[in-house]
Design goal:
Belongs to the DSD1 family. The protein is built from ten helices and 17 strands. By secondary structure, it is an alpha/beta fold.
Length: 362
């Protein structure tokens, strides 16, 4: 096989199935992200894609100071890395209100914000914090129908939050991950219309932070002024977004490595990449794309096995190493405890996927 950018010079150092982070490519993706945003100050990248202290520190090095997370563990990971500002972009309910408050106490040098999208959550946070201040953003549902207050009720919720002295309203969180038109101009038209509908429905405080979008709408919201941008997947990139977002010039920076463990019948190979090692929420033909295997079909996966029909069966040997691009990188990373770190084909480090856990210390 011809050596390519992804080829490991000493593959025996890397167990399989495993995930490999290509550090030089991660750095380039961060640089591209900053260039699209126009400055690191506009960025609030999501940590859910990589879940590692080391990648967050690479972003801190270039001047990114604000980060978005989905779990208490991700928030703690960001604080452990030295993030000055963290938004917990997930509804804080039940015991997580107390855990969020504990984060503030344990990591006083990090400013933690949370989302509210209804009066019940807002009042619960207000009651728990008492005389203390809880910085919050209002989560807006502008069409995704997952979380967020509907646009028609947004001004009413804003008014209610202002009546709760423990809550400090910092701005709006407007996530539009449902808008995934392949054509950029079509996507831009839909994204802009959804955003403008929110702006037309309320009285916007000039002191608010307006946090917009994710990776699909990143290049759209970057064109407007006065908003913050929160892409995530582009740090590592994946097969799914590479196919969908042709205008975004990010590079695959994380690959799966898997080995042939059996040749059970002519034309078939079995690899050690089961659905415990790659995100399995999509059909089997949209889970992983192999870079050094031609004319193949991933037929099935069980927990620890993947069965592949190949045209080059005679030339494939048990023990051969395959490199695969996940279709969806974020949940794939969460399936691995560590990542092998590579520079110029050489293994240079191993990073812990620390916030794949639901709990670190809090």
């Amino acid at each position: 096989m011809t050596e390519d950018w992804f080829t490991l010079h000493h593959p025996d150092l890397v167990p399989s199935p495993g995930i490999v982070f290509y550090q030089d490519r991660i750095r380039r993706n961060i640089a591209i992200m900053v260039a699209i945003a126009g400055s690191p100050e506009r960025l609030i990248p999501h940590t859910k894609t990589h879940k590692t202290i080391e990648i967050l520190k690479l972003q801190l090095e270039v001047g990114i100071t604000k980060f978005k997370v989905s779990t208490i563990a991700e928030a703690e990971m960001a604080a452990m890395a030295g993030a000055p500002w963290v938004l917990l972009a997930y509804p804080v309910v039940g015991p997580n209100v107390a855990r969020w408050h504990q984060l503030m106490q344990q990591y006083p040098e990090t400013s933690f914000q949370a989302l509210v999208d209804n009066p019940i959550t807002a009042h619960a946070i207000h009651t728990y914090f008492g005389e203390e201040k809880a910085p919050v953003f209002i989560d807006v549902n502008n069409g995704m129908d997952r979380t967020g207050v509907e646009v028609e009720n947004l001004q009413s919720l804003i008014d209610y939050v202002h009546t709760l002295p423990s809550l400090e309203l910092k701005g709006l969180h407007i996530y539009d991950g449902h808008i995934r038109n392949t054509d950029f101009e079509e996507r831009k038209e839909v994204v802009d219309a959804a955003y403008q509908r929110v702006m037309d429905a309320i009285q916007v405080d000039e002191n608010w932070m307006i946090i917009t979008g994710g990776t699909p709408s990143f290049t759209v919201h970057a064109l407007r002024t006065g908003t913050y941008l929160s892409p995530g997947t582009c740090l590592l990139w994946d097969w799914g977004y590479d196919d969908l977002l042709e205008e975004q010039p990010f590079e695959w920076a994380a690959l799966l490595v898997t080995r042939v463990v059996s040749k059970p019948a002519e034309g078939l190979i079995t690899i050690d990449l089961g659905h415990k090692a790659v995100a399995a929420e999509n059909p089997v033909n949209r889970r992983v794309k192999f870079l050094n295997l031609a004319e193949y079909e991933l037929l099935s996966q069980s927990e620890e096995h993947g069965v592949v029909r190949v045209s080059s069966w005679e030339s494939i040997e048990v023990g051969d190493l395959l490199y695969g691009v996940p279709y969806h990188i974020c949940p794939t990373v969460a399936l691995h405890e560590t990542a092998t770190v590579v520079e110029n084909g050489e293994v240079v480090d191993e990073w812990t996927i620390i916030s794949r856990k639901r709990k670190i210390t809090i």
